[in-house]
Amino acid sequence: MKGKTINELKLGDKAYFQKTITETDVYMYAGITGDLNPAHINEEYAKDTMFKGRIAHGMLTAGLVSAVLGMQLPGPGTIYLKQELKFTAPVRIGDTIKAEVEVSEMIVEKNRIKLRTTCTNQNGDVVLDGEATVMPPR
Predict the structure, then answer these.
(1) What CA–CA distance (Å, rounded) separates 50 from 72?
(2) Is 99 helix (H, G, I), strand (E, B) or coil?
(3) CA 16, CA 68: separation in Å to the nearest integer?
(4) What is the pLDDT of residues 80-89, one digit of tens each?
């Protein structure tokens, strides 16, 4: 299985992955990373925060972008080089998040692609915005 090469891509190409964030996802992410911040795993603590309840880890949401890049666009064989992120709204357990990427710049001579990266929830609210730089497979 091989992703698209730079010669197979064009500006404006898009792909997405969508997933509903579960309590299990949040606990597994916390266990894998060691990020046991009570804002994510302790409802009693989290209900007194500005979010009024637990929220998913921002990097769990960002991981959905990685899934799109590594599996769809450009796809398998892609090397993730850089990611700029802005978390714009909380992701809650039960939210359905759509991670979308769009080719915004092609640097053919260096075999690099820049992509706009956006995650939205089921209401269409942007929860993550950014830009990735990747090296597509040759």
Answers:
(1) 36
(2) strand
(3) 6
(4) 999 999 999 9
pLDDT > 90? residue 1: no
Map residue 41 onto helix, strand or coil: helix
Q: Which residue carries 């509903």 as its tokens?
A: 20
CB 137 within 8 A of CB 76: yes
Burial 23-46 (b: 16+ CB within 10 A, else e): eebbeebbeeeeeeeebbbeeeeb
**Alpha-carbon gap, residue 48 to 125, rounded angstroms:** 23
Please state at what angle helix 58-71 crosses helix 23-33, rounded to 10 degrees: 90
Tokens read off for 126: 């942007």
pTM above 0.90, yes or no: yes
Render pLDDT for 45-89 as a digit per residue (tens, 0 to 9).
999 999 999 999 999 999 999 999 999 999 999 999 999 999 999
